[in-house]
Amino acid sequence: MIELLTPNEFEALLLSLKISLTATLLSLPLGIMSGWLLAKFDFPGKGSLESLLHLPLVLPPVVTGYGLLVLFGPNGPFKELFNALGLELGFNWKGAVIASMVVSFPLMVNAIRLAFEAVDEKLEEVAKVFGFPPWKVFFSVSLPLAWTGLITGSMLAFARSLGEFGATITFVSSIPGETQTIPLALYGQLQVPGGEASALKLCILSLLLALTALWFTRKLRKETIR
Amino acid sequence: MISANLQKALGPLNLDLNFTITAPGITVISGPSGSGKSSLVKLIAGLNTPDSGWLNFGGKTLYSSALNTDIATHQRRLAIVFQEARLLPHWTVKKNLTMGQKKIESFDKIVAVLGIEALLSRKPKHLSGGEAQRVALGRALCQKPELLMMDEPLASLDEERKEELLPYIKALPKKFNIPILYVTHSTKERNYLADTYYFLEKGKLTMQEKSTLTSTKHPQHLQLLSKVR
After folding, report:
1. DSSP 3-state percent helix, strand, coil across chain B (nearest 5)
2. Is A131 within 8 Å of B82 when comparing Cβ atoms?
3. What is the ipTM of this complex?
4. Which residues are within 8 A (CB) of B102 and not within 5 positions of it... i.e. 6 or more apart?
5. CB nearest B45 (choices: A129, A141, A145)
6. Does B77 touch chain A if contact means CB atoms closer than 8 Å?
7. pLDDT band at B205 (very low <50, low <70, confident <90, very high)
8. Chain A residues in contact with B82 (beta carbon < 8 A)
């Protein structure tokens, strides 16, 4: 398998997996919190928060990427904060993770929110009556019963990250071995003469990755629904 | 002992509850639909917050608008059996009974009295309605609550299952030494279970003479009577 791929293509594959997995895992705690807040509570500014969270879904990814570049790039307003933290986001894989997180977050939150909304409040009430403090109600009842939503949300976010192109190329460019994921490599190959064979391989690779992710999700859901 | 003076406006209904229950055994509260029976249970459990008043239970103040006290539901040491079993679907019957606690006093006795030994390792979706409701009853007993409230616990079951469960409930106060507040609109359940009996109508509670229990009067007839008094 490895010999079928050139070092460049193999690097793109690893990078795609690394960036998408990191983005999904980092988004998950925030996604759970936001989904739960939106599902269970009414608070002032809820509408505005919802619009803000959905913005990356309706904006062209290039616009999102440009926004990220302006905000978090080497000359952005947060550059001193990032310097102090020793965090450099511009033109490296960490920036690509941020781009993936931002564009995939609404998909994750929506799935998780729906799952929390579907949890029967009467069951949460029972847990309260039987002596569970609020944190325990959340971890013993709400979260396990919303489990399939967490899986669906993570899957959607992971898939969206795998396919991420516009925001990434705008924010962190297409640097082989650093930010050049499969879609960026594929696009790059199409720009050079004789790159078609490589592009086809990357295309098939994408398909295989997507199918594996789907299969894995189905398996996880089945396990928990049992 | 539980004593309360609670007010709560619920749409067109003005709940004004003023009662003291000192009697051990089963106290039945009945009344027509929409009279506020379930709201009463929720107010005592702290699932709904009253507009004003106070609620004392076993020498503790659970709620007082004057003192600004409102003990959270999970600290009230009550148990409720609802109309639906409300078992947690991701847990086995055993875990539903213990609610995750390691050691339950008289667990074996409760399981034996309710006849649910064979169900312990099942998930709730594999239980019949009657079985699920017995498990819900067992769950309530396992908590060793200071008060057990039952809100129409038999209403969603067919006649046969009702007949099957009534004797279990009747025997509970003696077997487990727990006072029970039993809410129902069924005359039959009331007559069979009540040691003390209150009638709730339009948000007001009135204690009824025990003699009315033995009569087989139609519920509406009873309502008329309570108006005359």
Report:
1. 35, 25, 35
2. no
3. 0.83
4. none
5. A129
6. yes
7. confident
8. 122, 126
